Amino acid sequence: MELMWNSSHTYGGNIHYIEELYEEYLNDPNAVPEQWREYFNKLPRPEGASAQDLPLAPVRDHFSRLARQRISRTASSGGDSLSDKKQVKVLQLINAYRFRGHQQANLDPLGLMQRKAIADLELSYHQLSNDDLDQEFQTGSLFIGKEKATLREIHEAISQTYCGTIGAEFMHIVDTEEKRWLQQRFESVRSKPDFSPEVRKHLLERLVAAEGLENYLASKYPGTKRFGLEGGESYIPIMDEIIQRSGSYGVKEVVIGMAHRGRLNTLVNILGKSPAELFEEFDGKIVIESGSGDVKYHQGFSSNVMTKGGEVHLAMAFNPSHLEIVSPVIEGSVRARQDRRDDTEGELVLPISIHGDSAFSGQGVVMETFQMSQTRAYKTGGTIHIVINNQVGFTTAKPEDTRSSEYCTDVAKMVSAPIFHVNGDDPEAVLHVTQVAVDYRMQFKRDVVINLVCYRRRGHNEADEPSGTQPLMYQKIAKHPTTRKIYGSQLVETGLITAEEDKQLSDDYRDALDNGQHVANSLVKEPNKALFVDWTPYLGHEWTAEYDTSVEMKKLQELAGKMCEVPEGFQMQRQVSKIYEDRRKMQAGAMAINWGFAEVLAYATLIDADLPIRITGQDVGRGTFSHRHAVLHDFNDGRVFVPLQNMKPNQRKFIIHDSFLSEEAVLAFEYGYATTKPDALVIWEAQFGDFANGAQVVIDQFISSGETKWGRLCGLTMLLPHGYEGQGPEHSSARLERYLQLCAEHNMQICTPTTPAQIFHLLRRQALRPLRKPLVVMSPKSLLRHKDATSTLEDLANGRFECIIGDKGNLEAKKVKKVILCGGKVYYDLVTKREELGCDDTAIVRIEQLYPFPEKDLEVELAQYAHLEKVVWCQEEPQNQGAWYSSQHHMRNVLNQIKPELNQQFSFAGRTASAAPASGYVSVHVEQQNRLVADAFEA
């Protein structure tokens, strides 16, 4: 279109032709050729421009003059007071339709939706009557192509625009420009644009594909679960149009998240999955080489398709049964792709999220995902949401039982997202709202919702009978023709196609399925691999492979100095300034290294190695316990400085953001990010470890099992503050036992580091070695400043992460009769108690990596104690929690290798079993802590 704009017949002297064409378009988009209408629809508005501003200066000036003339005429026009009052009422009537017309729209294909009469939409409500229908009034801001029109014309225009098969909700939007833009798009064509014969035929072809696949599967695999799309076939044209239209904008990647319904249809008809491969899955012929695999309607897929704007990569996310949880996962994946492309505005990567109606209104993670949509840490330039609205929840629930709001989409209003309700049996209306949705998202970079009101021809899945609980609905459905049949008949009646051609489309599609042919439009058979995320460097690595995490001392000190530099005149708050003074001393070797210094220095070394880092959580800039202070705030003017973003010229990104108060959506987002950007160290830190409880579905169904179910590698790191400090049941335990219970098949790492050097090397190991497994760190609270929990620069420069740390006391191995095994903060309590007792026959060994359990390392450590008689596991957590039940079999395996009889002398020291993680009273906590430490020595 840019070529058309600059071509000889429109360039230079013919600019007036463009002005006139644009003016005609504004008055009536259907009056201009389709290619010009498409171009004008997509024209960006200059930043800060009003709704009437145009992209070209001559055109803008032209319409500014028209606007001034209109204002002048309106101001100078006379008229009696009654006419003036009626004029005001007419404008109020127009506004009422904009606000509430959707409540009278014809949205339900089945005609079962009960709509209450809306008084605001009656002429009489506005003191108007049929006697006024032929009187002329100013049209005000109504986009109908003329400044004055009869009330009849005005009423017909607003009724057709807002009460047809499209119910547009956008008057809740705060931004006036956005509202005016949407008004123009709907009112100028009365929500019913004229589409070319080619477009209409393509619409029918996509409906044939949608219905054809479901019919084929129903006949070939009757009663088999597939969560079919019957009743919502117009969804396939929506997806087709979004992809093609966004591609014309220059989008290079589209990431799709959806639940079960329609998933198989999307895979075959949109992403181009081979029908033959799908049929093999139905036949049970697929054999997986490793892992558990997953059911076919959870599977993800990726492919490339060709659009007018070039090749576009499509990626559908894998998704468990937990309804809406995939929504924030795809946002994280999109943000990672955008970061990879330096796509800060969301021009190149587009998220599409498909929802069920009851899940959209019922699942809190939907609200959380909307809430993150415009925040610095999580925005992706707007998501196109599609609700496949079956009008029934799961198997039995009616809308009045699934929500308290009028529409399932009302939650989207919280972020001022426009919502387009549309009757699924009107494919052209569906196409229109889809085009508006794409254009809105690309212009304003905000979320937009399409509520596809349809029905479910079969039950929740094909194995249940819905008429038992919805008899009236399913009596109606049994008699109702399909969307494809309705639309095909319309095209036959208008003479666009013949009945024979209509039937031939269905026959051709079925033949293609019989032959196992690809049936997706524009599928690229030899895709451009540059559009893919390259995972090959991270495949095929063994757990046992060592990786050097040491750093040359001179480089370490150089980086430590750099990360402590702040701009001249930057005034830090007093306590923060003291932290940075201490870090400079640590850099010089004049002070023992604490946790915060070692952690931040680990990030500095990774930045120096050209690795990107992303850290989010509810207080990560400072750190919940004020140990990190990676983000500095000037005490005088509030400006922000991040030393780690200023380590060297052209460095890779160091992203650190305090998150909003969400765990489920935020952790899901970071999982999506980590599974898409394997070269980055991605960290989520819980404010307290127990906060992760609110994101348990992400941990259970993605982080711990995503690799074995779907083959999805993930290097996400979770920092979970854990330790018994007398802060009560909710802020003591990060629920270590839950993570250990999820461990199998080397699926993730669970570590309890106890020194600054350990966290330094652990973070470097996670980022530098090519193995991509989730890392769960039980990170400390009091140890952040514990006088004994320190390290030296030499420990950082020359060491490595130790899965087992042997006894650091001056014990003679031949004297040792007892070994206390432990992990985490309790180690320091045990050392203090041993010194108090003057005990020289008891060694204390820390297990810093609980999974994969380092049995060989522990065997080597214990083997040196030839006279060992007893082994104790000591933990702070109650006996039914912590590591005892999930890890003791590993320890017993080791004891069997050294001295089998030790298993009889292997005992537990810790809090007694408890329903709560910890006591709520400090005095009780102290008594319990003293008792368990004493028990470790007395056992």
Describe the protein.
With 939 residues, the protein is of the alpha/beta class. It folds into five domains: 1-77, no CATH class; 81-191, TPP helical domain (Helix Hairpins), CATH 1.10.287.1150; 197-524, Thiamin diphosphate (ThDP)-binding fold, Pyr/PP domains (Rossmann fold, 3-Layer(aba) Sandwich), CATH 3.40.50.970; 553-795, Rossmann fold (3-Layer(aba) Sandwich), CATH 3.40.50.12470; 804-938, Rossmann fold (3-Layer(aba) Sandwich), CATH 3.40.50. Helix content is 40%, strand content 12%. It has 32 helices and 24 strands. The strands form five sheets. Strands 3-9-10-8-7-4-6-5 form an eight-stranded mixed beta sheet. The protein has a seven-stranded mixed beta sheet with strand order 14-11-15-16-18-17-22, with helices on both faces. Helix 29 (826-837) links the parallel strand 20 (818-822) and strand 21. Residues 1-13, 46-60 and 62-76 have low confidence and may be disordered. E1 component of the 2-oxoglutarate dehydrogenase (OGDH) complex which catalyzes the decarboxylation of 2-oxoglutarate, the first step in the conversion of 2-oxoglutarate to succinyl-CoA and CO(2). Its EC number is 1.2.4.2.
